[in-house]
Amino acid sequence: MSRLRETWNTFTEGFIRQTPPLFTALGLCPALAITTSAANGLVMGLSTTAVLVGSAVMALAIRNVVPKQVRIPVYTVGIATMVTVVDFLLEGLLPEIHALLGLFIPLIIVNCIVLGRVEAAFTRMKPMPALGDAFGYGLGFTWALTLIGIIREVMAAGTIFGARVMPVGFTAWQIMRTPPGAFLTMAFLFALIQTVRMQSAKRRDRRAAEQTQAQAA
Amino acid sequence: MKELILLFIGSALVNNFLLARFLGICSFLGVTSQLRAAVSMGVAVTGVMFGASTVSWLLYAYVLDPLGLQYLQYVVFILVIASMVQALEQVIKARMPGLYRAFGIYLPLITTNCAILGVALLVVQNEYNLLSSIVFALGGGAGFTLAMAMMAGLREEFRPREIPHAFRGTGIGLVTAGIMSLAFLAFSGMIPM
User: Which of A10, A30, A131, A205 has the most beta carbons within 10 angstroms of its beta carbon?
Assistant: First the structure.
């Protein structure tokens, strides 16, 4: 497999096939906590992407000098440093959103998606695929958070990125802004995804059965 | 004294770490299939929360703040937590091998439980004194354990056949959490914010 092909494959894995938190249940804390609006989801996703890509580059740079046994504390400190940088950048550039995201920016340090991808970059991936992987998971997480943010914002305020989309008479569902609204939105999204998966699995089975029948005939 | 009681209730019930702040959702959905394991996990997390927030508070107040190194807090706190979990793991492995097996991968994962780094950062952010930080961490831990126990208690009663296919797995856990969270919203009337 060519290097480019491999990089593309690792990118699409995180971006569309295993996208957290929708298709793999990782990173649920930020997905529930900060998706009260589309803008929050987008900024949170992009911040996570920045940390992820920075940390992957760091992991690739140090993996030949750091002994395997101490890699976890070493790259955790690296991730924490990246997060500190992103935290200060956001505070300077987008102070309002920084205040809304609050605790969840420093909590990127303990985001399982970041830790998992950095571990993969450190232990087994070639440099280009590892970067593709970091961008894929980061941007996948970004679109997923933005989507959840859009759903909750439409129902809680009738707007998307602050622009009105629902008719004037629309009664806002205050519940969607609150914690129970977050849990229920995610629950129904998971149910929807599971239904679609079951349907396509059924279709695949039926096609396979038809094929074996055709072969038998 | 009254303030400390209010702080404890606030941190345990009103702003429950799992149901209102969304900190520690992984273990909330991952380790709640059995009541015993869920409660043990709650107690372990409470212990680490207490230890980590106390040590972090002391380091921040006596080292980072006086030296003007506040920006190092994320790096320092995560190191404190990681070493504390490592120590706890050794103790549990040596003294309670049964529990060690029951926790499995979720024991080292306490390090990446957002509730713990969250509590350490919150006590600094809210500028609590040492006593308030301890009360806040213990309240948070108590609320965490309570929510874990409730979730596991409910899950033990589920009959998988009666759950619609679409909601099996994570879906039904999130619906349950949503309803519990709705109930916990009622606590917000208890404390004037």
Answer: A30
| pLDDT for position B168 | 87
Mutation for A interface: B74, B121, B125, B176, most A CBs within 10 A: B74
Residue A163 β-bridge partners: A160
Which pLDDT score is estimated for A1?
Answer: 61
Q: What is the pLDDT of residue B192?
A: 59
Chain A residues touching B178 at Cβ < 8 A: 180-184, 187
pTM of the model: 0.90
Q: What percent of chain B has pLDDT over 90?
A: 59
Of the partner residues A87, A178, A187, the one whose CB lies closest to the CB of residue B174:
A187
Burial class for B21, CB neighbours closer than 10 Å (0-12, 13-18, 19+): buried
ipTM of the complex: 0.89
